[in-house]
Amino acid sequence: MYQPIPGFAHLKLYRAPDEVRYERVPAAADIIARDSIRELVTIAVEVAAGLRPLQHLRRDHFDEAIGLHLRLWKKAHGIDSGAASGELLSLHARSHGEYFGSARIAHRRHAFTGSATNGKLLTFRLL
To answer: What is the domain class of 27-126 according to CATH?
Structure first.
């Protein structure tokens, strides 16, 4: 279908009849899962940014491998304690425990992914 372009009456723009949408509306269970892990993911992002010490990753809420990953990630990216800023930009979760999103750490965007169960993060990977 051709539609006129505003301000250019003699030109028309072809617009496909059915626009493709890649959006997915989260189910109620997905929203509950996201809300239950939001605080834990925020803590992990702040540890990666150097705003919190590694000791804030308590064993009752975080697996030990998460602390090791974040320690090595900070070393590889040259992030010192308190030197960077960290902000959770987006968080998406599924009812079976998988989560993913993005965060701004030291003025750069980074993706993350992981899994959680019963209020504990089992995995957390910054990409």
So the answer is: alpha beta
